[in-house]
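Running this now, will post back.
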Amino acid sequence: LDLGCGSAYFLTVCEALGHRGVGFDLDESPIYRDLISALGIHRIIGRIDPFQPVPGVDERFDLVTAFAICFNNHNDPQPWDCPEWEYFLRDVASRLLKPDGRMVFKLNPRDGLTEEAAFYSPDLKKFFQRLGAKIDGPLIEFRRKPVLSKLGVAL
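Update: finished.
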């Protein structure tokens, strides 16, 4: 499942390598709409909002990705912090991931900043690490079981 799939480039590569992918995104770009249709990519139309479950997805996946995510845009007046991320990670890990699934996200930088501070605050980085995240600059990888266990969700 690729959240914010855009033109579905990542999903196209995945399918070329023999995997089945599903996209999730807004339906605002006629070019993306036509491209996704021409490529035969399955896309769920929806929006990710803080403290709301990811809408319209009713299956489980081995991998949930989001690259250059906009639902946590640092330049918005209210960028996501630990409570919003906790809700989102709990929702995705408990409802959308298979038992051995993982999540990989690439965060957008805040304007004018470099290094790790551009992607997350020290508190948010500590929160991700507490949940067992593997962090490499803007890339953050989570495995389902540690996230749910550390959030107190029964497996």
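The beta strands are 2-3, 22-25, 42-45, 61-67, 97-106, 134-136, 139-143. More later if anyone needs it.
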